[in-house]
């Protein structure tokens, strides 16, 4: 709506009628600094009070020359529809949701690819300690190159930062190796079914070691988690105690990693991507001497020749792929945590496990009994219920 308004005839009324009225005995006068303008009969200009006004332009207000006093000051305004106002703010929210959705889809896809190549490598080259070391080394090298070439901004750290990161790195190293050992002995789906019981360990450790209490629904959610994992374990066709214990140790280690991380990183201004990069580098320093002690170069060399003779040159690609994708999926998960709440992250982690379990069963043709599948479904349902009543 366009209207012409004379400064000397601006009228304000107080009426219950949503339309401004022109009738008023004392119109507001323009201050003395503006030139006097001839008084004309106010024109009817109905303007809705229920919609905001957006002034597009005011021409030469208060700067008219004497010879231009007869000119009118034109004030162009239009009524903004509510839908236009909402549309102005909606793109940012929509863009954020799209960004998070891309993070989640990338996180799950990278995790699925990592688990597939990791299992392929471990089937042909059963040395989980070296495999774990290569994963951390590859990620550390990628981030060092990114920092050196300014692709990513290097974090500003100090000695105190590395001190607080050390216990997190120890727990991360144990959890990483234990999970890899588990997948070298049992099916990928079985490892992830057992690892879906991590929330139960989180509650138990927090309750009995840290003295924290939780709402009753949280404790009730542990029943399907523990029951489902137990049912899946006893009905697993290719059950292996080493594989089972590896997944259990990984659960405990990652619980302590999360606890140490929450306690030690408060107030640290390091992005999720750089935080995981530093974590990988410190874990690599911790893991390397143990990998040499447990397995050693002689075993690695002999196994490498055997794998190359059986698989061919593509085995090298498998090793490179599992190392690269391990770092990428973890990096994206930490970047996701920068954008979302711990609760949303926990739900996303649950859905990620479902995608890994289903895809690994399809790709590796893992035999699954109906009772085993039921146990997995119950455990994952319990994990989802748990995530609804906690903040991560």
Task: Tell me briefly what this model is.
The chain has helices spanning 82-124, 128-148, 159-185, 188-195, 198-208, 216-234, 241-264, 272-294, 297-311, 314-339, 342-364, 370-388, and strands spanning 53-58, 75-79.
Index terms:
Tpt_PEP_transl, Sugar_P_trans_dom, 2 domains, disordered N terminus, single chain, transit peptide, mainly alpha, 392 residues, two-stranded antiparallel sheet
Write up this protein.
By secondary structure, the protein is mainly alpha-helical. It folds into 2 domains: 1-80, no CATH class; 96-388, no CATH class. Helices cover 66% and strands 3% of the residues. It has helices at 82-124, 128-148, 159-185, 188-195, 198-208, 216-234, 241-264, 272-294, 297-311, 314-339, 342-364, 370-388, and strands spanning 53-58, 75-79. A two-stranded antiparallel ribbon has the order 1-2. Helix 1 (82-124) packs across helix 11, helix 3 packs antiparallel against helix 7 (241-264) and helix 8 (272-294) packs across helix 10 (314-339).
User: Strand order, biggest sheet?
Assistant: 1-2
List unreliable stretches of 5+ residues.
Answer: 1-35, 56-61, 75-80, 82-89
For the terminal residues, how far apart are their CA atoms?
52 Å
Distinct helical segment count: 12
Biggest sheet overview: 2 strands, antiparallel
- Which shape, going by the Cα principal axes? globular
> Please, how many domains?
2
The Cα radius of gyration reads 32 Å
Query: How much helicity do the residues have?
Result: 55-70%
Class from helix and strand fractions: mainly alpha
Question: Percent of residues in beta strands?
Answer: under 5%
Arithmetic mean of pLDDT: 78
Number of E strands: 2
Query: What is the succession of H and E elements?
Result: EEHHHHHHHHHHHH
Membrane topology: Multi-pass membrane protein
Subcellular location: Plastid, Chloroplast membrane
Transmembrane segments: 100-117, 129-148, 216-235, 241-260, 272-291, 311-329
GO molecular function, one term: phosphoglycerate transmembrane transporter activity
């Amino acid at each position: 709506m366009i209207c012409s308004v004379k400064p000397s005839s601006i009228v304000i009324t107080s009426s219950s009628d949503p339309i401004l009225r022109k009738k008023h005995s004392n119109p507001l006068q323009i201050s003395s600094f503006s030139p006097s303008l001839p008084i004309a009969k106010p024109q009817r200009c109905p303007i809705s009070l229920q919609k905001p006004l957006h002034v597009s332009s005011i021409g030469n207000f208060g700067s008219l020359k004497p010879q231009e006093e007869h000119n009118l000051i034109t004030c162009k305004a239009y009524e903004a529809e509510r839908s236009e106002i909402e549309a102005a703010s909606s793109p940012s929210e929509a863009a954020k949701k799209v960004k998070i959705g891309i993070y989640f889809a990338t996180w799950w896809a990278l995790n699925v690819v990592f688990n597939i190549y990791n299992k392929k490598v471990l089937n042909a080259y059963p040395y989980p300690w070296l495999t774990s070391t290569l994963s951390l080394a590859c990620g550390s090298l990628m981030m060092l190159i990114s920092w050196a070439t300014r692709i990513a901004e290097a974090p500003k750290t100090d000695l105190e930062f590395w001190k607080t990161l050390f216990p997190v790195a120890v727990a991360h190293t144990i959890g990483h190796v234990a999970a890899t050992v588990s997948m070298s002995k049992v099916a990928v789906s079985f490892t992830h079914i057992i690892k879906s019981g991590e929330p139960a360990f989180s509650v138990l450790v927090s309750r009995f070691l840290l003295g924290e209490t939780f709402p009753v629904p949280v404790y009730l959610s542990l029943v399907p988690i523990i029951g489902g994992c137990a049912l899946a374990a006893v009905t697993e066709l290719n059950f292996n105690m080493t594989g089972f214990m590896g997944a259990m140790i990984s659960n405990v280690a990652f619980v302590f990693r999360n606890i140490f991380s929450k306690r030690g990183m408060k107030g640290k201004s390091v992005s999720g991507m750089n935080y995981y990069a530093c974590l990988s580098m410190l874990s690599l320093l911790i893991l390397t001497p143990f990998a040499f002690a447990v397995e050693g170069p002689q075993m690695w060399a002999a196994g490498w020749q055997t794998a190359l003779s059986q698989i061919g040159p593509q085995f090298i690609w498998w090793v490179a792929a599992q190392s690269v994708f391990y770092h990428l999926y973890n990096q994206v998960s930490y970047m996701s945590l920068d954008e979302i709440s711990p609760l949303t992250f926990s739900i996303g982690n649950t859905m990620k496990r479902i995608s890994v379990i289903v895809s690994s069963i399809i790709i590796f043709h893992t035999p699954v009994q109906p009772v085993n599948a039921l146990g997995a479904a119950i455990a994952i349902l319990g994990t989802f219920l748990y995530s609804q009543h906690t903040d991560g």
